[in-house]
Amino acid sequence: MLDWQIDHLKERYAEIYLLRNEGHFAIYDFAQGRPFQPDFVLFLQEKSGELITYQLFIEPKGKFL
User: What is the pLDDT of residues 38-52, one digit of tens each?
Assistant: First the structure.
């Protein structure tokens, strides 16, 4: 399933990086300052030539694990 998704993403994005966060960094919410450590971070950079990078924070849960 992941192979198909990566191939699909390669059609639109020039750079794709999936990093596992092993406790190296936390993201803090602005309202209460609570830390959140996503399991994975997916970085995507557009092929369009614009300097746009997407960061997606992934927390897999449920029966698919």
Answer: 888 888 888 887 777
